[in-house]
Amino acid sequence: MRQKIAAGNWKMNLSLDEGLQLARVISNSLDLTETKPVILAAPYVYLKSLVDLTFPISNVHIAAQNCHHEPSGAYTGEISIPMLKSINVNYVIIGHSERRQYFNETNELLKLKVDALIDAGMNVIFCCGEPLEVRKAEQQNEFVNAQLEESLFHLSANVMNQVIIAYEPIWAIGTGETASPEQAQEMHQYIRAQLNEKYGDNVSQDMSILYGGSVKPNNANQLFGKEDVDGGLVGGASLNADNFIQIIEALY
Ligand code: PGA
Question: CB of 53 within 8 A of CB of 31?
Fold first, then answer.
């Protein structure tokens, strides 16, 4: 079901104590009548503690920021999907532009991760988005469509309810430069149209498409107010409880 979602991506930040405190303050701020999902994507080593802290709160979900596609084996330093499942982590971010850029993750590799996650019954937050030069050349639709086609659109319609798409234009990540609400809406509408073409009305209307890239308390309302923007994947502003709580409130 299409939902408004606030997802925080902590990236490689915070100590364990800081992370737990942040999650505690955010969880305590949530009104029990609020049912829109809040997702906290934390470093691997904090996930178990965060799951234990938040498990009684049904709309708070803990996510990993990556995973390996093989279930086990000689992959020193990697974390598998069964490992995440064994500590009750059910959400994983895949294809963040920082993974693509700094760790050479290709559409082909992401397809393997997507398949392994879907097979394991996990929820996938699939990131897509274009770099600045592509935006300048007005090729962003083709670029994002290729990312979706090559890593995601081979899935069958009946598993698309395990997928959340996050559109994150790279030029807006961590730069303080946000896509305008109109630019975000334009791309989200385009992505939904592609989903519609591929999967039909039900899937495309049910899909949550999040915007990411310098979402802040002062722009969240406008961004989330757009018809096809179903919330945000928030980096920097999710590290501060007050800021992130204001962004959660902008979902309502
Ligand atoms: P930002 O990061 O909010 O700091 O721009 C967003 C993201 O990379 O998910």
Answer: no
